[in-house]
Amino acid sequence: MKRIPGSLIVIATYNEMANLPRLIERLYELMPDTSVVVVDDNSPDGTWKWVRDATAEFPSLNLIHRIDERGLGSATMAGLKFGLENGFEWIGTMDADFSHDPESLSQMFDVAGEGGFDVVIGSRYVKGGGIDGWPMYRRLTSRMVNALARIWLGLKTRDNTGALRVYRANVLRELELGSIRSGGYAYLEEVLMRLQRTGAKVVEHPITFRDREGGKSKAGIRVGIAVICEILMMRFR
Fold first, then answer.
1. Nearest 5°: phi and psi at 178?
2. Is 17 in contact with 43 (CB distance < 8 Å)?
3. Bridging pattern class, strands 208-210 and 119-123
4. How far apart are CA 46 and CA 107, in angstroms?
5. Is beta strand 35-40 parallel, antiparallel or unpaired with respect to 61-65?
6. SS3 state of residue 187
7. Distance in angstroms (rounded) separating the CA atoms of residues 175 and 215
8. Residue 98 near residue 20 (C-beta atoms within 8 A)
9. Collapsed DSSP state (helix, strand, coil) of residue 61
10. For 126-142, what is each residue's pLDDT tens digit?
């Protein structure tokens, strides 16, 4: 499969030793010419230590070790800024727990380059996409949050809460990432809202989202409520 030069994958982690080593190996099997940056919030299970040591085996693996900061949104922003500062042309984001299939991300990089898109979203809610292993309450919460984002924020995309994405670096530069105010999961909707306003060319690529293979999920009902509150406030900022 032809690789796009200058691509980076951003992975935000907290206590992901059960998954990350296998994920990194798989990513480099599929995309040997890509680079990876892991943004770790000082995981007690030693995730950041493994990444630090693994850079000897994987020269294009990078670590951002955050001591006093927490949160998926700010960690992902740190990874995106790393990509912009280091001149990458394409930047992908994904979860560390194998809920996102590395092969899907590889396909999305190709879709971005071959289709001339600015953003490719790994989508559960377009034809061909789906969810495997989620209980009903998580399915309903996800549907509700996505519907709210479309109605309240005017988003045209169907899957606005998924973190499996590929961005063209130039469109991210237009956003001024430092001005993103949503620190939790709601950063995903805020980024899409701003990209839509800039006229970015966005496409949704069908994926199957699978519940994590190991470790403990950080998402839950409280997270869902927090995202809903953030979306409601976002429109007035």
1. -65, -15
2. yes
3. unpaired
4. 31
5. parallel
6. helix
7. 33
8. no
9. strand
10. 999 999 999 998 899 89
Collapsing DSSP states into helix, strand and coil, what is residue 237?
Answer: coil
pLDDT tens figures, 145-185: 999 999 999 999 999 999 999 999 999 999 888 888 776 78
Question: What's the predicted TM-score (pTM) here?
Answer: 0.91
Place of tokens 């040591």: 53
Side chain identity, residue 171: V
In the numeric block, which tokens belong to residue 61? 């693996």
3-class DSSP state of 6: coil
CA distance from start to end of the chain: 43
Asked if 85 contacts 8 with a C-beta cutoff of 8 angstroms, the reply is no
- What is the spatial distance between Cα 165 and Cα 172, in angstroms, rounded to a whole number? 12
Spell out where the chain has E strands. 7-13, 35-40, 61-65, 90-94, 119-123, 130-132, 165-168, 202-206, 208-210
Whether the Cβ atoms of residue 51 and residue 17 lie closer than 8 Å to each other:
no
